[in-house]
Fold these 2 entries.
Entry 1:
Amino acid sequence: MSKVPKVNKTNLASSSASSKASPGAVDDTVFDLPAIEEEAVLTGAAADAANLVGNLTNLPRILRVAVLIDHGDTTIHDRLVADIVTLCPDLPSTAAFAVAGDSATARALAGELDKRAVADDQPEFRQLGDCLRLLTLPMQHDLSASEDYKRVTLSLFDALNPLPDDIDPQLGADAETFCVGWAVLPVLRHYIPRYRQPRSAAAAHASFLGNMTATRRIDAAEASIWASMDAHSDDREVGAKDTVEILAAARADVLQPPAMTLHQCVVARLSDRETKGNRLKELMPQFKDVINTPLPLIETPSLQSVRQSLLLEFPYAREVIDTVLGDLVGQVTIVFQPTLIVSPPGAGKSLFWRRLSEILRIYCWRTDASRSDGAVFAGTDRRWNSFEPCHPFLAIARAGHANPLVLLDELEKAGTRTDFGRLWDCLLGFLEAETSARYRDPAIQSNLDLSNISYGATANSVAGLPGPLLDRFRILSFPQPSPDHLDALMPGILADVARKRGLDPLWFPLRAKA
């Protein structure tokens, strides 16, 4: 069987032989990587070609993989290998995944695809990474705590919502059933006898749970159809055409989900009685534009231009930039995973968050953690004269859009304020998507949807930070600039000096090198 080697399409065996023939010579192109089976690539390509005229081509890639898993297809691994070799041929981990195909190699390859998605501004690469995670993510004791699981769940439902109305009904039903089953995996895993097996793939159980949880809705749809047909038969004989119309109307009434708007969000919903309450009337004048009002969600711009702008100012922080921007690949609107940047003082981590928000055109609400406590940040109860909503809601009101950035500066110093509760403790509810989507504000005394807010934090060290808080943050190390970066940093430094003095940056030209 012929092999397609991974590195520069040069046969590893011949490269190794040539290196042995020249003792002392160093060949940087030789790596100890497995070769990609040409048969795997051809099998995947042939399987995709066979379905080019089928209904699967109408589905987004991740839903296509989900339906293939549901149907027990055995070529999914080869299909993904073929796609990756075609679209992104030079990734080092592709060969390892082609041979092993386990969760560890899939996660490594998905990480490389994420970075390439940011660098090349190609959402298709991120979708491939999510497909790898969907195929290989194993069942875990606490699957809901897995960032890979959360990410795949969002990708599945983002792909499911905009499916066209004319899609094949059975295909749409299979995709929807899989997505529902995947979403309930963490809470219904006890229904799965084999979930404790360490090598059991999570996706293998999604359709089983989806079919189990959707039965009542199907029964309700059938009951509605028969009731409509009985009502019509009392007046006149129902013809074939009338039956079709009844079935279509019943399906529209029972099965179709409500329309969703991707670019707006109602953060606070209050009834007329609540807004006219004695105490809440004091807040209404300053929040009338936020309560019961659809607020815009700032859309994701071209990530390639954002990345280039950030690299000009922070050339030493390439890994941090690519990781943070990786959250936005394929996202319609801007929202980041909660991220804590750690470095010694003076590295520019606070400036990074501020410049990121400016380039993305989202509002940045800065909280000095050393001077804030839990009672203030989480909101003050309406029973007090100085009651005030929580800071994330204030950030939305100040921003005028529903997805600002909340910056928690010097987070490690928040533990010094304990008189009104620690900031660390109140943050836990804001950092979880489940609780932030329905946060019960003590001042407004109603649930707020704060799930579109991004949380960035800085710290000089993670020593002393509580474990539950660290579990909710992605922790990134922010490097310090070296003298080699001075030429790249100088324009930004001079521009800041000009702004502080109220002068045009053109008055501070860079001197040419001698």
Note: The chain has four domains: 33-213, 215-254, 272-481, 482-514.
Entry 2:
Amino acid sequence: MHLSFRTRLTLFFLLLVVLPVIALAVAALAVEGRNGERQIDARLGQAQRAADNLYARALRDAAAAARDLEENQDFANAVQDRDENALRQQARQVLRMSRLAGVEFRVRGVGVVRAGARRGVAVIGRPLRSSDGNFAGRVLLSADTAEQYARDVADATGLDVVVSRNGRELASTLGVPTPALPGRGSVDIGGANYRATTFGERVDGGPPLDVAILARDDDDLVTGPTLLLLGVLLAFMLCALVFAVTAARSLQAQTQRLLFAAQRLGTGDLTVQVPTEGNDEFAALGREFNNMARQLRTRLEELDMERTRLQESVRRVGESIGKGLDRDALLGIVVETAVDGVGAESGRVLMRDGPGNAPAEAARAGDVSGYLQLLQAAEEAAMEDGDAVEMEFAGASAVGRPLQSQDEDAGVLGVISIARSGRPFSHREQELLAYLANQAAISIENVDLHRTVQRQAVTDELTGLFNHRRFQEVMTAEVERTKRFGHELGLIMLDLDNFKQVNDDYGHLQGDLVLREVARVLRESSREIDEPARYGGEEMAVALPQTGLQGSYEFAERVRRRIEDLELPLLDGSGTLRVTASFGAAALPGSADMDKDALVAAADAALYKAKRAGKNRTVKAE
């Protein structure tokens, strides 16, 4: 079926305007209906993260208090003597000196000694040891009560909070009884509709804590702005229909005039003048028809100008090459620009991996198989002469030009070569190739310098291991990857035993030798995916992706034994020196909700225990 221009134009307006308007109206209703829920869910998500952060902070406070308690000699003596009064005094002192809500000591031979809240939330448990190091019981430190934690979360988020354990409500900011709350969704409480999100928080030595955050959901499905939008869309659709019919009639008449003029131009009559009344698009189109004849007469001149612009654009590309940092992409751009700029059929770039090494192909453009022998001959001659060489054979021509380093001692970095058949390369084309080769050589050296600077920025100069900054970046990335993919992440921390004595007895140069040799052992013992680093001073660390606690412990033991077997020569020639190291091993299970700092703290605490237990040993984190 053949439709007239006016009919097709009318249908076009209908499809372009009416259907999108209808779709927009439907989408507006759907979006408005869901917008309120999405905003509330987003706010609940932010509130959950805030609650997690508050809970993590409370756990850190409790952990810090636990570490202080482990170092308290009076407390260790009280545990050793089974002195209940002294233990109770120590419990009250812990409350005074920290922000904890409750302290509980479970001591063999004494029983339970408690101060503060009977049982709070954000609980940290630690084993009790007497002054002689024997296990004597357990300590539980509560950072917050359920009521305080609920108030803190409510103050931080502006939302209502319910805290429960095993289905029993511990604290609430609602003031009314709450039914069973969903993990995420809507719930009716006291006749009001709420959106809720419920999540768990770990409690050491007890069942997990359930935290529910609730936000009022009173949004209407259809609001006044939505009705106004629908009205505007309906009015717009009616106006569009009227305009479509009117415009179709006007455009049909103007198209007929343009069609007649185009037919005249098609017969070769360049004198025809197209009507150009008015200032609309059809008048502009008529003026373009009238300019067409003039453009045809000047086209040859423009072609020559375009060739000149092409040469200039190639030069600009050459200048941009000098700023690139991707070596492989840079070489690809160089050879492609050289082939296109001089009208070659193919080309390639050879680069040396290092001084004295044979050059190898790094990039190519076009099919070099038909010119391979000719290209190789031009490349070898250019590398040998240190200057451009052109060779011809059987109607084909190839040019090789070396990539010269700015450093005279470095010599030739590589060679770029191009080839084609039919005619040799002109002097102007060879000049353009020389310009590109010089820019490429400068950029390659810039890339190498940039890589060197990047490597130095993350490497410890003495040991060759990653520095502390790089270690922190790696740990952040690995913890996030562990959470995303459910893998395990191991971490070991090691500290050289009695290293200060080495410096005092033999000097810092001897100490530097010890650090370098230990770093070498650590580097040789690590896998490609492991990340050994100098954490600070004589302390080092290794991040072990996809490794659990047992694997981390076994790795640490292997390294410890290799360090113990080292025999390091004394710099004064008087003999040899042997050193040992203490290790702490920790791991982040794939299902754990733990951050980087907690993992590092766990490994560091295990290292501290290894030191206290006699050094030259590995201790697993609890």
Note: The chain has four domains: 1-222, 224-297, 323-452, 468-620.
